[in-house]
């Protein structure tokens, strides 16, 4: 009798099944009311006294093994069914990944970079935390210069010579220090100014500034470059340049593009004039060239700068600049189909 139990113990240990009906048949065979284990218990009274202990231990071992085998096989089967339910037919084509949304600032910046890359401008970058020399002094803004008041600056408290850059012109200074003409580069990046936050202004925003330096560069070259840009970016070819002042360019000008007065929005944006200011520009001041180690008697150049945020607001009809930095997923999803 004990040999029979040991034989069944071996069979239970070797048993395996991947179907629910086979597992259930195994359970009934050993653990059912009329199963083998109950039969072995019923035979216990006929076992000689000197074998009862070994016989009882063998029955208990068989019962435990059978119960563990049924539980483990059911668990494997259920996990497999859950996996099939979760993943379905693995031979079917996968569901497409949901596309993310490119930020409107990135969309506009990439468009500007692509337009200028067609005429040979490369992209240069620099640190957002800058020193006084690169942000002010090298750009013809020495200490105590009144024009510094035009840009309310965030200075680092522990070091008054370190600040958050107020424009990406500092990148142009670094580029001129490390490269000799001809230079043709644009510098996109985030800048900071201590301004009140409202629907039309923020304490940080984004700029793209351009620089071209070579022999014989004239104001006419600047105008034609800007004419090309406005035509490619806005589809507007009519521009005007108004005299202005910037410490690092001389002469300097503000650039307006004729937007038109076809819609009510056009009237609101242009205040009824049809003209919209988009950037500042000018010929690079000879002092700036000399500060950066470039011979101003041999070379000349022009520079321009525009706000990416302002153009994004304009092109995408966004009414509040704060929406660009709030990361509201509902707002960003509107640009899913954009480049």
Features:
339 residues, alpha+beta, 2 domains, seven-stranded mixed β-sheet, 10 strands, 21% strand, elongated
Give your account of this protein's structure.
The chain has about 350 residues and is an alpha+beta fold. Helix content is about 40%, strand content about 20%. The chain contains twelve helices and ten strands. The strands form two sheets. Strands 1-5-6-10-9-8-7 form a seven-stranded mixed β-sheet, sandwiched between helices. A three-stranded antiparallel β-sheet has the order 2-4-3. β3 and β4 (about 160-165) form a beta hairpin. The mean pLDDT is about 85.
Helix and strand layout, with pairings?
Layout: H1 2-14, H2 20-31, H3 36-42, H4 52-87, H5 104-117, E1 122-123, E2 129-131, H6 132-135, E3 155-156, E4 159-164, H7 169-178, E5 183-192, E6 204-214, H8 219-234, E7 239-246, E8 249-258, H9 264-270, E9 275-284, H10 286-291, E10 300-307, H11 308-315, H12 329-332
Parallel strand pairs: 1-5
Antiparallel strand pairs: 2-4, 3-4, 5-6, 6-10, 7-8, 8-9, 9-10
Helix pairs in contact: 1-4, 2-4, 5-11
Mean pLDDT: 85
CATH domain topology of the largest domain? BirA Bifunctional Protein, domain 2
Low-confidence stretches: none
Q: Indicate the proportion of strand residues.
A: 15-25%
Cα(first) to Cα(last) distance is 81 Å
CATH architecture of the largest domain: 2-Layer Sandwich
Q: Structurally, how many domains make up the residues? A: 2
Order of strands, widest sheet: 1-5-6-10-9-8-7
Helix share bin: 40-55%
Number of strands: 10
User: Based on helices, strands and strand pairing, what is the structural class?
Assistant: alpha+beta
What's the shape?
elongated
**Roughly how many Å is the radius of gyration?**
39 Å
Number of helices: 12
CATH superfamily of the largest domain: Bira Bifunctional Protein, Domain 2
Subunit arrangement of the protein: single chain
Biggest beta sheet attributes: 7 strands, mixed
Helix-strand sequence: HHHHHEEHEEHEEHEEHEHEHH
Query: CATH class of the largest domain, anyone?
Result: Alpha Beta
